[in-house]
Structures are given as C-alpha cells and as structure tokens.
Amino acid sequence: MLELIDVSVARGSVPVLEGVSLALGPGEALVLRGPNGSGKTTLLRAVAGLQPALAGRIGGQENVAYAGHADGLKASLSVSENLRFWAAAFGTRDISTALVAYDLSALEVRWAGNLSAGQKRRLGLARLLVTGRPVWVLDEPTVSLDAASVALFAAAVRAHLAQGGAALIATHIDLGLGAEVGVLDVARHRARFPAASGDEAFL
Ligand SMILES: Nc1ncnc2c1ncn2[C@@H]1O[C@H](COP(=O)(O)OP(=O)(O)OP(=O)(O)O)[C@@H](O)[C@H]1O
C-alpha cells in the first residue's frame, strides 16, 4: 500500500534524511520518532507528494490521505459542510461515521472558524475518514487534543487498521496502538553530506 525505497529528502537546499526504506501493508502502522528538527515532517511531506524526494522511490502515493500541522479547514463553512466538501473532493458520501468517531455531532452546524484548537484538530482528523484513502500519513496528529480526544483518535486508527488500512504517524506520544506497531527512528537516517546545488523549490 505504501513503499519507500532508499528515499532521501531535503528542506530548502539542505539534505535532511537519506536511505529511508519502509513498507506498509493492510493493517500495518509505523510510528516515526526522532528529535525536533530531525526530518519527520520533511519525510511525511514527500510521502504525501507535497515535495519531491531527492532520491529513491515512493510507491503508493495515490493511496495516501495526509494530515499535517495545518488543519486545512474552511473557516466560513460549518463542521458538516467541511466534511461534505472533502467527501465530494474524494468522491465519497458518508460523513456520519466521521462525525461520530470524533464526537463532532453536537458541533455539526458551527463554523469551523469558531471551533477551539482541539475541536479544529478533531475535525481535521475526521477528514481522513471521508477521504476513503487507505493509507493515513499523519504529522503530530494529537497536538491540541485532550486525553479524551487522543483516545478517540487512537480508536479511529485502530478501526482503520482493523479494516485493512495502514498508517504512518510522526508522534512523540504513546498512542497505545499495541506492540505490533513498528517504530522508525529517523535520527538513524540523518543526511551526511551538504547539497551540491541551491535548489530552493521546496521552501
Ligand atoms: N521551510 C523550511 N525551509 C528550510 N528548512 C526548513 C524548513 N522547515 C524546516 N526546515 C528544517 O528542516 C529540518 C527538518 O525539519 P522537520 O520539520 O522535517 O523536522 P521534524 O523532525 O518534523 O521536527 P519537529 O519534531 O520539531 O516537528 C530542520 O533542520 C528544520 O530547521
């Protein structure tokens, strides 16, 4: 569903990570670990197709639904309108599963712009459920979430995996997803050599 073979990525003109290989099949999840600035976001952006890899091959990008630091919400649309917008964009219809999974039913008619930070994050994560995409690529998904919302998120990931989905998640917290979830420490892949040219296209 997702395969990285010997992938290198850069930010600005600076190589950040090199030699990253991984594969995710149905029901599999991998947690990315590494200190601040080690390159987790850069790698996930490349996996999501938001920037090219410097080298290597990324297969299965068409399967990916990405949730990054920005929630990607339309402030002047309601919660349900946001979900309907994304459902239409991905050619799906059902938003009720997403509303229930992230406890958003009571907020359905509220403008997204008027939500709290944690509520916005819940709505941003609920978007994943309406994409119908099997591989979730998530960058610090639990930022702004309280303990109850982290539990909702972990349950949504578990259900996604149980239904044959996959997930690649950069997170500093233990999501309690179980011992079968792999961990990749990106610090082991820190790039060793400076860039040969000054390509600023990724900024
Ligand atoms: N827009 C940018 N232009 C140039 N360099 C950047 C840019 N954004 C990040 N960087 C640099 O790229 C490197 C990797 O950053 P990245 O955001 O991928 O790390 P991270 O592991 O996700 O960090 P964190 O845990 O703090 O989120 C860092 O040295 C960072 O300073």
Automatic annotation (TrEMBL):
Tell me the GO BP annotations in alphabetical order: cytochrome complex assembly
Q: Which domain of life is it from?
A: Bacteria
The enzyme's E.C. designation: 3.6.3.41
Q: Which UniProt keywords apply?
A: ATP-binding, Cytochrome c-type biogenesis, Hydrolase, Membrane, Nucleotide-binding, Translocase, Transport
Q: Which GO terms describe its molecular function?
A: ATP binding; ATP hydrolysis activity; transmembrane transporter activity
Q: Which InterPro entries match?
A: AAA+_ATPase, ABC_transporter-like_ATP-bd, ABC_transporter-like_CS, ABC_transptr_haem_export_CcmA, P-loop_NTPase
Q: Which residues form the ABC transporter domain?
A: 2-203
Q: Which SUPFAM superfamilies match?
A: P-loop containing nucleoside triphosphate hydrolases
SMART domains tied to this protein:
AAA (SM00382)
Top class in the EC scheme: hydrolase
Spell out the PROSITE patterns in the cross-references: ABC_TRANSPORTER_1, ABC_TRANSPORTER_2
Q: Does the keyword Cell cycle apply?
A: no
Q: Which NCBIfam families match?
A: ccmA
Q: What is this protein called?
A: Cytochrome c biogenesis ATP-binding export protein CcmA
Q: Which organism is it from?
A: Roseivivax jejudonensis
Q: What is the lineage of its organism?
A: Bacteria, Pseudomonadati, Pseudomonadota, Alphaproteobacteria, Rhodobacterales
